[in-house]
Known about the structure:
About 50% of the residues lie in helices and about 0% in strands. It has 3 helices and no strands.
Amino acid sequence: MKSPVLTMVIKQPKDPRARQLLYEQLTHVISLYGGSVTAMSHEDAVTLCERLAERLPDEEVEEARQEVAGMYPEREPGTLKA
């Protein structure tokens, strides 16, 4: 089974009303299929993680990956790589 979480980076529209509608529609569709938003960031957290992984020693990055993998034991091994 794949990880029970999905991370996406969405470039939002500039218009504040369009951003609000996008958020409302996304959360609506997510809830329709039984999902929920468990975290949200107003920055590109995926790229931030990639940059941190480039700067940290490999063993620290792998240790962090193992900690996160322990949070989702039903996921397939190796699907959490940055």
